[in-house]
Structures are given as structure tokens and as C-alpha cells.
Amino acid sequence: MKKLALAFAAILVALSAWAQTPEEILEKMDKVMEHGDTEGMIMTMTMKIPIIGAVPSRMYILGDKSRVETQMLGQKLVIWEDATTTWTYNSKKNEVTIEDNKADKSSDADDTLGMLDGVADGYDLKLQKETADAWYIVCKKRKDNTNKDDPKKIEISVYKDSYLLKEMKAGVSGVSVIMNEVSFGVSEKDVIISEDILKNAVIVDNRKAK
């Protein structure tokens, strides 16, 4: 019986050595998500807005270029963006609006990646649960975090086999945001408006004359 107890204790010690803290899990997730910097990132972001409901967007990000496809109020909007220009296609109107980006305006890509970058900074982390395939972590905003834009709570799940983000949930000003379905591998053609759309749509060019 004593030998059995000693063996059981040894197993517990080994398991504790394998165990990871929530901080370690998210740190490894951050490193995996860095692949998006070179390979480009694809993800789904769903915003749940009072009265309007759920608004899903599929995002393709490569460097300073991005494409966002959104279904909202019975129409499809596609937004292409680079460092200087934004093209917005409204399928219902078959119209493309072209605008200069403001010097101080951050892109949708920057805003999205900013939410994922260092997500645990300013938060206390707790491993809520784990399943065969993922860890589920709750991040609660610390009292010393005075950034008003940071949500009070963020829920993150991470795949065990790859340390890839499975899902992230957060809420700000009554709007909840869910990010999931993350993958890598974006080409230039994925983030540049096609010539066919420009040829066949009505063009509204609001750019300032150079």
C-alpha cells in the first residue's frame, strides 16, 4: 500500500510539472498568432449589437491590407483597405465608394489585431476549465488597469494541440464581440479589390484630388 501511495505521489508530481498556468498558455498562443504577421490571417468576428442583432464579418488581413465581408440589414458590404485608401462595395446598390484614409485613422486590421496583441495585459487570469481539445481562460480587468476601452472581462479558449485561438469573447458599451474560426494563409489577391467589381459597379470617388 505504501508503494502504491508513493507511485501515486510521483504521478501527481509529474502531472504538475506538465501543467501550465493561464499566463503561459496565452504567451504561447501569442507566439502562434504571430504567424499572421507573415502569412496573413483569416478570422470571423461577430458583433452582437442591441436592436440590430448579430453582425458577422469574415476578415482577411495581410500586412497593411485587408478585406472585410459583412452581412447586415439584408445587404452585403465588402471593405478593402490599404495604408492610404478604403474601397467599400455595397452589393444592394452595386456601388463602390472610394475614400482617402485619415492620417490618424487606424484600419480594421489594426483594430482587430490590436485586440489580440497582449490580450492578457492588465488582467488577472483564471483557468475556468479544460476539455480534451482546449483550455478556457477568463481574464478579469485589474483595478490598476485604467484604460477605459478595455472590457471588464474577456473569455478566451485555446486549442491544446496547436495553441491557436479557438474563440475570444468580450463586451464593450453594450456590444459583445466574438472572434473565432482563425486560420493563416492570405494572398495579395485576397485583399485587393477585383477589376471586375470596379468595371461593373457604380463608382463614387470621394478622394481628394492630388
CATH architecture: Clam
Fraction in helix = 10-25%
Number of helices, where a helix is a run of at least 4 consecutive DSSP H or I residues: 5
Specify the biggest β-sheet: 12 strands, mixed
H/E element sequence: HHHEEEEEEHEEEEEHE
- Tell me the overall shape: elongated
CATH superfamily: Lipoprotein localisation LolA/LolB/LppX
Q: What is the mean pLDDT? A: 86
Give a count of the beta strands, DSSP E runs of length 2 or more.
12
Low-confidence stretches: 9-18
Tell me briefly what this model is.
The protein is of the alpha+beta class and 210 residues long. The chain is 23% helix and 43% strand.
Protein model, in words:
- It is a single chain.
- It is elongated and about 55 Å long.
- The model is unreliable at about 10-20 (pLDDT under 50).
- The protein has a 12-stranded mixed beta sheet.
- The protein has a single domain, classed as Lipoprotein localisation LolA/LolB/LppX (outer membrane lipoprotein receptor (LolB), chain A, Clam).
- The chain has helices at about 1-20, 20-35, 35-40, 110-115, 195-200, and strands at about 40-50, 55-60, 65-70, 75-80, 85-90, 95-100, 125-130, 135-140, 155-160, 165-170, 175-185, 200-205.
- The chain has 5 helices and 12 strands.
- It has about 210 residues and is an alpha+beta fold.
- The termini are far apart.
